[in-house]
Amino acid sequence: MVLIAVQVNGTDHQDEVEPRLLLVQYLRETLGLTGTNIGCDTSSCGACTVLLNGESVKSCTLLAAQADGAEIQTIEGLAPAEGPLHPVQEAFRENHALQCGYCTPGMVMAAVSLLEEEDQLTERTVREGLEGNLCRCTGYHNIVRAVLACAAERGMVPGSVS
Amino acid sequence: MTMGAGAFSGKPVRRVEDPALLRGEGTYVDNLKIEGMLTLHFVRSPIAHATIRSIDASAARAMPGVVGVYSATDLAFPPAPALMTLRPGAVRPALAEDRVNFVGDPVVVVVAESRALAMDAAEMVEIDYEPLGAVVDMEDALSPDSPVQYESIGSNVMIGLRSGSDDPLAGADVVVRGRFENQRVAVVPMEGSAIAVDPTGADYDLTVHLACQMPHMIRGVLSGLLELEPDRVRVIAPHVGGSFGGKHLSAEGVVAAKLALELGRPVKWVETRSENMVALPHGRGQVQYVELGLKHDGTMVGLRCRMVGDAGAYAGFGGILVLGQTKIMAQGVYHIPEIAFDVGIVVTNTTPMGAYRGAGRPEAAAFLERIVDMAADELDMDPVELRRKNFIQPEEFPLTTVMGAEYDSGDYEVALDEALRISDYKGLRDEQAQRRARGDRMLLGIGLACYVEVTGGGEEFAEVEVHDDGMITVKAGTSAHGQGHATAFAQIAADQFGVPIEQIRYVQSDTARVARGGGTGGSRSVQLGGTAVLQTSKLVVERAKELVADILEAAPEDIVVTGDGSVGVAGVPSKAITWAQVARTASERGAPLQVQHDTERAGSTFPFGAHVAVVEVDSETGRVVPVQHFAVDDCGVIVNPLLVDGQVHGGLASGIAQALWEQFLYDADGNPITSTLAEYAMPSAAELPSFTTAHTETPSPVNDLGAKGIGESATVGSTPAVQNAVVDALSHLGVRHIDMPCTPERVWRAISDARIGTLPDPWREPRTEMAAFPKEGASEEELERGAESVNL
Ligand code: FES
Ligand code: FES
């Protein structure tokens, strides 16, 4: 067993974990944060995407032990429980960017990080930026629209007015 | 704002489902925690076809945390359920008995305290196999020499049947012929199969949480298999992470239910993706031999189809689709006076086949639209004009087709015109000509598909109740898994009650809370479930009006739904009472304002449309990029355009992916070679373009909403449009056909074959075995003789 200390959605946690425990399992099973989904076993789908020290990672590709000392944000930490949705969540709703919702937490976290990382976004760069996140329901059309809407709101789309 | 008729229906109302899903509050099966729940893990066959010599599970049983390890000989499991049985005797045991029939066939199940422990123990199970030869190719399975899967049946041919016209090509001036592969694809819902079974509840012998589409049907099947009273079994479909025809009660699900009963403890099985790719039934999988006869002027005279359908292992029910939906839709949008349709359905040592978005209809549109393009090429006609010339005309509906389908309504030319208009078809053709004239490396391909498909048909249940606080509960027997019924059905009800959407509470997908239902599948939900909600709401409103007339001492015909949350006398705002008051009065009088109602059986509806696909083909590498897609889909009257477009987008992605990328492949021994998401070419956002969607609205006369299904239409229309676009890009080189998926290698090979004059003939004769199939409608004696010849 390994002792890890992490901050998840602003709360500090210390846990003894099995060395082989994946970060996604730690989040889901140990902490009960089941908003982060698992969609594959080859790091291909992005359903498990969370923010680790502000950057998006596939939480199935890391061991919980590797996250020792990190700050982690999951979908549950994006908007206050009783408060309004985060602007990216809101844009997903406004643009009908989710159907079954299974890819959605990972997709939203990937979009949050993409919007943070880039200065400008176009349809092409949004599509490439979300390449690691698979969705079977939406054909991505409305997901791309949602992210571009957020980008336009922040003045990140060339030619758009913020 | 005044509500009431039309305030919500037809509007792009934002989904009521979304906030919970966006906050990570999904209730997917794997999120469920039940005290003391055990986890299952399956040991699966690594060999496509083998007898099981011996199983040694002793080491696994001794592992920590292991509660039990079972093979078919350790516990009497019921057989795996089949949605349809292809042939008597073609049953599938829940766990393999004396032989395995595909890679991924579950043989042993480990029950342990945690998933990790179950997986560790599964590694310790030793199974000794004696390999038998495998048959992987569906056409090889037609041969009497192929290694037989069911000794008791004696042949891999489950159904062999010839039907229709004896000489459909008689009178044709020109016959075009093509052999088309409609390749096997994987369903890939982002959530795999998942089930949790709790035998400890007080009210039910079993409470089953299952990722599925049809909880009521599954309750019936499961209670039958386990010999329990149906009302002692509760099936709940919580949030389901997509299904697309794939998720039903699986063999593994039956094992889980049986073990929960046996052990008296809750058990859970959540499929890994690697399992899902080989265990969840695959879709499509046909080889199509198609001949179309035409007059010189392009008039179609007859169509001859000889089709092979792959059922996969254990006669997977998807094998029958070629004889069902593909056959019934063979005529498509055209006048084709004579059609012959012969079918051979075989078992192979591959993952069992099932339904996948479209289930038989995409296969029909694919071959028909492909052969029509080949005919246009042969006759040197514009593919648009050839289609137009043969369309069934709007005034001919309702129409019984040569195949016996009862087309409800349609206007194929209007959809085609709209697709040509929004795509600027002429402008695209000009651009293509310019690129060709310049000798551009990047070739432009423009592909057309006109389709009609079949959805719905049947009946559905709804219940509507107005509560004392004015809230309205709406229940339907359909079961959404991403489609947005909670929103669409609330729109329908809110309009009838003249209340805001927020006043409607929607309940579905739980056999304990919804009395009965047909579930969701075949794009049936709005036309049947939505109609049930509409009719039931109207019945409740009628009762309310009578009640209010009585209270206000007015004539019932003067009472109206006011549109601001009340019911009252028309034109007299002071004489109105709120829904809460109406409900309270109803309760006080001993008959709560609640109605349960089943719709009458309705006929199927036939959505249709026209797609224009635009691709760029790199003539040096063969790489195809879909650059634009214009989809005109007519699903009758639209309840929520936002949801309709969402269904279209998803369908387009699946359909385009089949044309260009996805294929589930095996090597010659039956080993899967695309069994992870790293190898299986499901597209990401980076591979796809944005889509242009439009709709014509031709109401269906068969339901009160005038609606037709939309869940699968875009899949049906897009695949042939894209495939046609790829071939079109190369048509000036003489290329007439490329099979799906149109991979860079295939496209490059076609280009290079064209350059050196070695293009293969797109036609060859089907296997001779098919000619021996008995003819539909033949005498018993002939059928038997035919069956014998098939069984050689
Ligand atoms: S679950 Fe992490 S990438 Fe698929
Ligand atoms: S919304 Fe279903 S997988 Fe993306």
Q: Please, what is the average pLDDT of chain A?
A: 96
Q: Using the CA coordinates, give the radius of gyration of chain B.
A: 28 Å
Helix content of chain B: 25-40%
- Under the CATH scheme, the architecture of the largest domain in chain B is 2-Layer Sandwich
Strand element count of chain B: 30
Give a short account of the largest sheet of chain A.
5 strands, mixed
Total individual domains of chain A = 2
Task: Return the CATH class of the largest domain in chain A.
Answer: Alpha Beta
Could you tell me the CATH topology label of the largest domain in chain A: Ubiquitin-like (UB roll)
Portion of residues in beta strands of chain B equals: 15-25%
What spatial form of chain B do the alpha-carbon principal axes imply?
globular
* Order of neighbouring strands in the sheet with most strands of chain A: 2-1-5-3-4
List how many beta strands of chain A DSSP finds: 5
Strand percentage of chain A: 15-25%
Strand order of the largest sheet of chain B: 3-5-1-12-9-10-11
Report the biggest beta sheet of chain B as strand number plus sense, adding barrel if it closes.
7 strands, mixed
Q: Decide which structural class fits the backbone of chain A.
A: alpha+beta
Overall structural domain count of chain B: 3
Under CATH, the topology of the largest domain in chain B is which? Aldehyde Oxidoreductase, domain 4
CATH fourth-tier homologous superfamily of the largest domain in chain A: Beta-grasp domain
End-to-end gap of chain A? 50 Å
